[in-house]
Amino acid sequence: MTLSDGWDSDELARAERLVDRIGADAGAQIVAVRAPGRVNLIGEHTDYSGLPVLPVAIDRSTIVIAAANTTGEIDVTNADPAWQGRRFAIERKIPPYETGDWANYVKASIQGVIDHFPAHALRGASMVVDGRVPPAAGLSSSSALAVSTALAFMAVNQLELDPLEAATMVARSERYVGTHGGGMDQAASIFGRRDHALFIEFDPLRVRAIKMPANAALVVADSRQIADKSGTVRAEYNRRVVECSLAARILGRALKLDGVTILGDVVRALPGWNASDLVEKLAVTSPAQLGADLKDAANILGVMQNALDADLLGQGPTRIALDPTRPLEVLKRARHVLTETERVIRAATVLEAGRLEEMGTLMDASHQSLADDFECSTHRLDALVECARRGGALGARLTGAGFGGSIVALCDVSNADAVIESIDHGYYAKHYPGTTPKNWRAVLHAGPGASVVDLRATA
Is residue 276 part of a domain? Predict the structure, then answer.
C-alpha cells in the first residue's frame, strides 16, 4: 500500500524534525507515515456486530518515521518523553508488555504484519512516533498508532497491501491488546477523505465517501474522563461484545438461521428486517438478562455450556473475563445496535442531502440509546452533550466507545463559536475552574487518510 498525498506542511515539518532521532545509516531509506484519528458521527458499537458506521477522519494525526535496521528488532522511541521507548525482537509470536503499555499497539501492528506475511523474512526497524491525536479521548489515538506503525513496518520491508486488506489486517491485529473491537477506526484512518464522511460497511469491508455539507461544523469536546480501552474500560467494552454476540445467536436460532455469531449476520440474512420486529422476537425468545456463567444461554441455544464459553470468551491471554455478579444485558444491547443501525443508514442519506437538522435529531437519538440501552455514557458526557445543545448544536452525542472520552456536536458553521462558549461556561468552568480549555475542544475537520512518503531515497 503506497500513498503519497494528504500531508500538510506542518506534518512534513514534524516528520523532518524526527529524522535526527532515527539513527539510520547514511544513505538508508527513511519512510514517514501519517495516520489520522477519527470522530464518529453516528454508529457506535455497531462495527463489531458487522453493521455500518459513519465516521470522519480528523485533522489530527500520528506520524511514524522508520528505517530498516540489521538487529532483527523493533526499536521505537516516542517524541513525548512521558512515553518510554521500547525495544523488542521480531519473532513468530511476540509476547505483550503489561496491560496498558502504549507500545502494545506497536507490538500489535508488527504482529499483524508477521501473521499476514508468514513466508517473508522481515527486517527490523528503528521508529520514532509523534502522536497528536489526544490519547484516551475517544478519538482513536490507538488505531492511528497501529495503522502508522503497520504501514511503516511494511514500507521498510517493501511490502504492499491494497487499502481494504490493510485496514482489515490492522483491525484484526488490535485484538492483540485484548480489546475485541470492530474495524471502524482502522478503516476511517486509512480511507479518510478531506471534507467527507465515510459510510463504512463490513463483511466484506466497503467504504463510500459522503461529502460534508459546506455549512456543517463539528465541535469535538473532551470530557477529560479517561476512556482507555487498553486498560480499565476494556472489561466493559468486551462485556458488550459478548452481550451482542449472545443476542445474535439467540435471534439466529429463533429465526432458523445458520452460522449466526454477530447481529450483522441476522441483518444480512433478512433483507426486509426492521429493528422493532427483531427486538420483539428476541424479547419473546429469551429473558432480557442472562447469567454471566452462560448456563441459561447454553440451554436456550441447545449447546454445551463449556463450548459456548470457549466460543464467546476465547482462551489464553486475550480471554474475556466477565464479572460473575452481573447479569448479561441481552435485550437492551441488541435494541441499541439494531436501532442504531437504522439511524446510521438514515444518517447517510440525510447528510448527503444536506439535511443537517434531521442529522442532528438522529445524533440526539443515538446518544439517548447509548445512555439508556448500551449504558456507556457517563454523567460527564451527558453534561457536555447538554451544554452543546444549549449553545445551539443541531445534535450532539458521545463519540468513540464511551465510558469517558469526547462528544461530537453538529452545528452550523455560523454557530460553532456559540456552541464552544456554552461548553466552556457550562462544563469546563464548572468541572475545571481556573483552567484554559483551549486544547480540550475544537472545531475538527474531515481530513485525508493515511499516507506514506520517502524522506530520504535509498542511496
Answer: no
